[in-house]
């Protein structure tokens, strides 16, 4: 079994925070390999809140007297004083992440991010973003760097935002592998948008066929990879036209076009105005508004 956790003030004793809106008490992970079974039973629950994310395998939870098997891609939210009874099996190579938290505004914070409080199970889908945020919270608790408690609350809120987006935008219906590949592609395209990106070569570098990658990308984003790259180029071209005096040739080069005339045609098609007319219209509006 593998365990890696961090605790506030290095204390395993939970407490109920009454002064501050939110405090993170602990975070970490358990991963089972050779360990046959890892059970937890707290008949009276805890005084704090707990959020469990199943990242691999499955967890067995006794909820309202019934055993429910939850596969990876689900979270379980325990409120204070709720009975906690669950176990994980090594034969499934199960792994889960957890965070304990407390505060006098926890319920309102969860409601603000549209986290359901009328049950236990949250169908959030699988994502490396979740693991990354749990890891960062654990590391903050271990390292205790300056302002780490404030950073913990920021990371936890980011986790809630990510959960809300996944649950309300349909992402949980997408396989975790597919979701992460598209996220990786979007990050790559944003960083390299001004380079000569070949979709076939990119898909091959990720061990995917071009058609499968295009289909998955469109199913999640609603647009093709090339349209995504085009949108990034046009957005950055707009920023340069609005905030600099660079020539059209210079701006075209910066956003990935060797031919300024071709860039102007593409920009006009996407934005309805030529680059020069767009800049003029923007600055006239800016002067009028000020």
Task: Describe, in plain words, how this protein is organized in 3D.
By secondary structure, this protein is of the alpha+beta class. The protein has three domains: 2-173, Jelly Rolls (Sandwich); 176-226, Arc Repressor Mutant, subunit A (Orthogonal Bundle); 227-289, Homeodomain-like (Arc Repressor Mutant, subunit A, Orthogonal Bundle), CATH 1.10.10. Helices cover 46% and strands 22% of the residues. The chain has ten helices and ten strands. The strands form two sheets. Strands 1-2-9-4-7-10 form a six-stranded antiparallel β-sheet, with helices on one face. α4 packs across α6. The longest helix has 21 residues, at 148-168. The N and C termini lie far apart (64 Å). The mean pLDDT is 91.
Entry keywords:
290 residues, alpha+beta, Jelly Rolls, Arc Repressor Mutant, subunit A, 3 domains, six-stranded antiparallel β-sheet, 10 strands, 22% strand, elongated
């Amino acid at each position: 079994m593998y365990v890696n956790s961090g605790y506030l003030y290095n204390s395993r004793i939970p407490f109920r925070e009454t002064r501050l809106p939110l405090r993170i008490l602990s975070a970490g992970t358990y991963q089972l390999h050779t360990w046959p079974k890892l059970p937890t039973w707290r008949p009276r629950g805890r005084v704090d809140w707990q959020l469990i994310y199943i990242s691999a395998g499955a967890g067995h939870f006794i909820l309202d007297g019934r055993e429910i098997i939850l596969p990876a891609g689900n979270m379980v939210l325990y409120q204070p004083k709720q009975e906690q009874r669950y176990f994980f099996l090594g034969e499934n190579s199960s792994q889960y992440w957890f965070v304990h938290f407390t505060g006098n505004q926890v319920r309102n914070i969860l409601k603000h991010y549209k986290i359901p409080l009328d049950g236990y199970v949250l169908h959030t889908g699988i994502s490396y973003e979740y693991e990354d945020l749990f890891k960062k919270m654990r590391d903050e608790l271990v390292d205790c760097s300056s302002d780490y408690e404030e950073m913990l609350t920021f990371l936890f809120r980011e986790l809630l935002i990510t959960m809300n987006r996944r649950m309300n935008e349909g992402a949980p219906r997408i396989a975790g592998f597919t979701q992460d590949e598209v996220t990786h592609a979007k990050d790559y395209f944003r960083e390299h948008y001004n380079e000569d990106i070949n979709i076939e070569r990119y898909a091959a570098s990720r061990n995917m066929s071009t058609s499968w990658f295009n289909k998955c990308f469109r199913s999640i984003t609603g647009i093709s990879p090339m349209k995504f790259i085009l949108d990034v180029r046009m957005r950055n071209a707009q920023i340069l036209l609005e905030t600099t005096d660079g020539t059209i040739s210079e701006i075209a080069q910066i956003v990935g076009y060797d031919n300024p005339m071709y860039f102007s045609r593409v920009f006009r098609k996407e934005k309805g105005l030529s680059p020069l007319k767009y800049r003029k219209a923007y600055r006239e509006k800016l002067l009028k508004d000020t």
